[in-house]
Structure to design on (239 residues):
């Protein structure tokens, strides 16, 4: 898949597919490459771009509110997650987190309870090119813990995350991390209590807030449109 970009317009297409817009029609060549410039039959130009994580985030089919790229960056930063790490993810949803982790070559097993959502996530993994490294499974992770083995990182975005955290000592390698994403602080508190109850250490919770800056002739200041809150991340570590 490639992106056809013109200004603030972006269209995701595969080689051989056709793009039809008010700017004209073009067929993507089979040998298309990033940086190439293609013209519609009206002479309007589009630049070819290889999709990366943020682009895929915008073009995935969504089944709910996905985790934001800034939250994913914190997950990677707090855990040091790297290529070859084994990740157990629960609450796949759209699959944005799983896809990002797959694109850094982590080996991800992710559980989604809703069969329809799981099908959408599998298609999104195909779109992201990570079907070989991300295994989307249908079901409640709590019912499938036996025989999963050990993981370097747990990433949980589910209401029953505290219940999964109670199994962390059996799921994590020594020094492994558990990360819980919650839109509400009550969920974070429950995760913190569960983590401490089973002996996880270095337990911290962080609110993720990000504001863009505005620069104009009057001066510079943070954007006043909202406070940029997305959720809370609780991070804990096994001994």
């Amino acid at each position: 898949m490639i992106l056809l970009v013109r200004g603030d317009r972006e269209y995701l297409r595969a080689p051989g597919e056709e793009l039809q817009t008010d700017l004209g029609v073009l067929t993507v060549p089979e040998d298309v490459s990033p940086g190439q410039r293609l013209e519609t039959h009206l002479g309007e130009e589009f630049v070819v771009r290889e999709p990366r994580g943020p682009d895929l985030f915008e073009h995935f089919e969504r089944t709910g509110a996905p985790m934001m790229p800034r939250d994913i960056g914190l997950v990677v930063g707090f855990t040091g997650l790297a290529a070859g790490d084994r990740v157990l993810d629960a609450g796949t949803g759209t699959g944005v987190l799983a896809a990002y982790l797959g694109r850094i070559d982590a080996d991800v097993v992710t559980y989604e309870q809703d069969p329809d959502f799981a099908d959408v996530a599998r298609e999104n993994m195909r779109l992201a090119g990570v079907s070989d490294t991300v295994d989307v499974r249908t079901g409640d992770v709590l019912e499938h813990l036996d025989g999963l083995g050990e993981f370097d990182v747990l990433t949980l975005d589910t209401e029953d995350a505290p219940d999964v955290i109670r199994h962390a000592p059996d799921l994590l390698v020594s020094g492994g991390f558990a990360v819980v994403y919650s839109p509400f602080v009550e969920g974070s508190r429950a995760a913190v209590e569960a983590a401490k109850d089973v002996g996880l250490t270095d337990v911290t919770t962080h609110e993720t807030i990000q504001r863009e800056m505005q620069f104009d002739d009057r001066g510079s200041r943070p954007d006043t449109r909202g406070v940029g809150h997305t959720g809370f991340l609780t991070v804990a570590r096994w001994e």
Notes: The two ends are 42 Å apart (CA to CA). The chain has a mean pLDDT of 93.
